[in-house]
Design goal:
With about 180 residues, the chain is mostly helical. The protein has one domain: Hypothetical protein af1432 (Orthogonal Bundle), CATH 1.10.3210. The protein contains 8 helices and no strands. Helix 1 packs parallel to helix 8. The longest helix has 20 residues.
Length: about 180
């Protein structure tokens, strides 16, 4: 597994503020939780495309136009990826590119609206949900995976460790806090 810094999105990829509540710090924390979920699922022998989940975690909000209820941002994030995947520091085959785009595209609609609630989509939705602590809106009953339930206290702790947000390098701030807690590799 590659180091988590590999997945760092560039600030210029964001359609909206990369330093806001859906920007780099959020992407980094969602990546931490997505990685934790993937690792726990793999340990329990659940088949999961960890690379697709980690890339989706890093890129899921780059298509946002604002910090409100932007219902189409998943679609725009997926479309951005499909147009710009060559900017990523890894080569993606067609299957993985399609999987990442699917996860980004369907992370916004309600679960029942997605054509399939894949384990990868569940991972991203739960990782994204865990970071709702930053806006004091985490409802742990909405988490899909049992492994996510075990991460709720850690989500609160990591969030508190990362405030106030370092506007110079929010990604590095999350990395440092997550490393201190043994969550970043």
């Amino acid at each position: 597994m590659p180091a988590l810094d590999l997945y760092r999105p560039r600030a210029e990829w964001y359609s909206h503020n990369p330093y806001g509540i859906h920007g780099l710090s959020h992407a980094a924390r969602v990546l931490v939780w997505a990685d934790q979920l993937v690792r726990r699922l793999e340990e329990s022998t659940v088949a999961v495309d960890g690379e697709a989940v980690r890339w989706a975690a890093a890129l899921h909000d780059i298509g946002r136009l604002d910090d409100g209820r932007d219902r189409q941002h998943g679609e725009r994030s997926a479309a951005w990826l499909e147009r710009n995947y060559r900017l990523l520091p890894v080569a993606l085959d067609a299957r993985r590119l399609s999987a990442i785009a699917y996860i980004c595209r369907w992370h916004v609609p309600r679960d029942g609206e997605a054509p399939a609630m894949t384990v990868e989509l569940q991972c991203l939705k739960d990782a994204d949900g865990l970071d709702r602590v930053r806006i004091f809106d985490l409802d742990a009953r909405q988490l899909r995976l049992a492994a996510a339930q075990d991460l709720v206290d850690g989500a609160w702790a990591l969030c508190y460790d990362c405030y106030p947000i370092d506007r110079a390098d929010p990604w590095a701030q999350v990395r440092a806090a997550a490393q201190e807690r043994g969550l970043w590799r």
